[in-house]
Automatic annotation (TrEMBL):
Annotated GO MF terms: hexosyltransferase activity
Domain Glycosyltransferase 2-like: 5-150
PANTHER family the record matches: GLYCOSYLTRANSFERASE, UDP-GLCNAC:BETAGAL BETA-1,3-N-ACETYLGLUCOSAMINYLTRANSFERASE-LIKE PROTEIN 1
A Pfam cross-reference name: Glycos_transf_2
InterPro entries noted in UniProt: Glyco_trans_2-like (IPR001173), Nucleotide-diphossugar_trans (IPR029044)
Protein name per Swiss-Prot or TrEMBL: Glycosyltransferase 2-like domain-containing protein
CDD domains listed in its UniProt record: Glyco_tranf_GTA_type
Domain of life: Bacteria
Length: 320
């Protein structure tokens, strides 16, 4: 048994492997294992990984390889193989400070928490990206006393807390009956965190002000090229969350979050051929949500646009 297991799935990340091993090698925390799991890469990621790990001669770093099955299953394999009292996650194309593991562990232990969240930088094109007003600033949630399970569910249902696995450390015992759902390719991390919270009788939750992790946004990553298929995954995850929550306020929060995400996606990736189904879903599933004036205008425009496109699509089909 070690104090903490850091789980890092990689897939076709040959460009980033050397930097990853360097970030792991320089970690100041010693009582840990760092599991890099290659998810059946089709490039030379695994060969490079073996080379750099062999050269760095650090017994904390362990390399595994498996047939390609996706990031969710790869994280599940990591959890199953892990020997740590605590679980942390990192992505293979990200970077982190030398005291990243040390600070996460000391924070959760000193605060006597079950799960602890830390802010992180979002890096795009080599520059730190400014957060929008809709994105979570975990440092603003930092306080001396714990948050509860109910508090965390409210944060999740309003989008104040996302599913980012890289942003928290948790007791491994919380994962005893929880896995990342392999059915989903986007928001699978939020779904897993939600399941972890729901399966816990109670939780002591902490947030900290200082960040030690840089999250890399790549335009070619699966998350950013998912399109409509990924959108359906996200909505499916949020609808599943809504169905499993009994609290009326949290249900309404989730309805609003789904609705707003729906509108954003409609405006960003509208395709007339898919609009009829969108219109029906939008009109009959989210009539109870609360929106700001700006969001209501956006919703009205989207409804009108979808209605027009739906009729056009239907007329086109009849004309054939």
């Amino acid at each position: 048994m070690v104090k903490v297991s850091l789980i890092i799935p990689i897939f076709n990340l040959a460009t980033y492997v050397e930097r990853l091993v360097y970030c792991l090698k320089k970690q100041t925390f010693t009582d840990c294992e760092m599991l890099i799991i290659d998810d059946g890469s089709s490039d030379n990621s695994f060969e490079l990984l073996q080379k750099f790990v062999r050269e760095c001669e650090d017994g904390r770093i362990k390399v595994l390889s498996k047939a390609h099955s996706g990031v969710s299953d790869t994280r599940n394999v990591g959890i199953e193989r892990s020997k740590g009292e605590y679980i942390m996650f990192a992505d293979g194309d990200d970077s982190f400070a030398s005291d990243y593991i040390s600070e996460y562990v000391s924070g959760i232990e000193e605060d006597d928490s079950d799960i602890a969240f830390y802010p992180f930088d979002i890096v795009k094109g080599g520059s730190i990206k400014e957060l929008t007003k809709y994105q979570t600033r975990y440092e603003e949630l930092a306080r001396d006393n714990h948050y509860s399970k109910r508090d965390l569910l409210e944060f999740l249902s309003t989008g104040r807390v996302g599913g980012y696995p890289v942003a928290y450390i948790s007791k491994k015992s919380l994962w005893d009956k929880v896995q990342f759902d392999t059915r989903f390719e986007t928001l699978e991390d939020l779904h897993a965190l939600f399941n972890l919270v729901m399966r816990s009788s109670e939780l002591k939750v902490s947030f900290f002000k200082n960040g030690y992790y840089s999250y890399e946004v790549r335009e070619d990553s699966q998350v950013h090229t998912a399109g409509w298929e990924g959108f359906y995954d996200r909505v499916s995850v949020e609808i599943d969350m809504k169905k499993r929550i009994n609290d009326p306020k949290l249900k309404k929060n989730l309805s609003s979050m789904i609705y707003i995400e729906y509108l954003n996606h409609v405006f960003n990736q509208m395709n007339p051929d898919q609009s009829r189904e969108m219109y029906v879903f939008l009109r009959f599933n989210f009539f109870d949500v609360k929106l700001s004036k700006k969001q209501r205008i956006k919703a009205l425009v989207a409804m009108v646009y979808l209605n027009v496109q739906s009729k056009r699509s239907k007329n086109d089909q009849n004309a054939r």
